[in-house]
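Revision sheet: structure tokens.
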Amino acid sequence: MGARVLGVVLLLFAFIALLFIAQTKLTGLVQPAGSTNSSSSVAVGPARGPAPPPTPSGVSPTRTSTVRLPVPPTGFTQKDLSPYYGYITIGNISRGYGTQYSAISLRAGNFSDASLNISNWRIQGNRGSTYMPRAVTLYDPSGLASEGDIYMKSGHTVTMYSTLSALGKNVRLNKCMGYLENTVDFNPRLSLSCPNDRPANFTSLSGACQDYIRSLSGCRVPSGNPPVSIYDDACRTYLNTLNYKGCYDRHAGDKDFLSNQWLIWTGGKFLDERHDRVFLYDGNNLIVDEYTY
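Predicted:
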């Protein structure tokens, strides 16, 4: 009897011990609301709030870029600005007092190897406006080259004069253009800077011929009656090439033949001689630049 009671007591204690162990394990797995388990490295349950948007392809998620919007001129908003705002700027304005001509200079900023077609853009002042015309890119000696759209590249300038073109056309300058000043009355005058075209056999020419060639300053065309012998064929043959056509024939293929400067003649003044607010508009009537004086 005593042994049987002892066996029952031991079984009871064993059952109680098993219940205690099971309760301890359940307590370690289930956390009360609001409590944390600092020893666990696994998060249980979904994160609260919406998931972040996916990162666009090719963009590092650790970097952000900020685009600075240009400040519009007073009285205008961002929607009034051209996509080319600041690419072309009004560099300088000479208002032209009285009978003096006016001049407006445009400058192209740094925009890689691209080019901007500015023909049909507009310059607007308080009293009037003018449209950007077309121009001859490569003015050949025949003078028959037709005008085309003006494409400005980085570093280019366009100067617009209120006078008339002596050529009857607007042009892109080249390094031989100064020779035309001998036969064409430009207003204002062109820069007299031309290549030094002494022939390879310069020293083999007669002394009188060499002296005369040395006396010819930049872009000057020889006289019709030069101070050399009429029998000096070598000299006279060379002198007959010292003009725009000869220079063009020698240098039109040079990489630096074309200048970065375009000249435009509008034949009319519209700027206020005292004060003005001048805008450059693109072909969609959006502001490219502003200039006040």
